[in-house]
Design a protein that fits this description.
With 69 residues, this protein is mainly alpha-helical. Helices cover 62% and strands 0% of the residues. The longest helix is centred in the middle third of the chain and has 14 residues, at 37-50.
Length: 69
């Protein structure tokens, strides 16, 4: 698990301590791809609506795998 956290951290994918709404996953994704947190959240939700049920798996998995800032 630590190797996954280290790899994601090296790639710049981590959950910030500030700007979190729930777990900080969307804020971290937005920061990694150069977006503000709210547009990143909107895009995340819209993408997950395309594949029904995926939000139940994707968000918690990212929450566990992404290291905290």
């Amino acid at each position: 698990m630590n190797s996954i956290h280290e790899a994601l951290g090296r790639e710049g994918l981590y959950r910030p301590r500030e700007g979190r709404v729930l777990g900080g996953v969307c804020a971290g994704l937005g920061r990694r791809f150069g977006l503000d947190p709210w547009p990143a959240r909107l895009l995340f939700v819209l993408l997950l609506l395309i594949i029904p049920g995926s939000q139940i798996l994707v968000y918690p998995v990212l929450w566990i795998l992404m290291p905290s800032d």
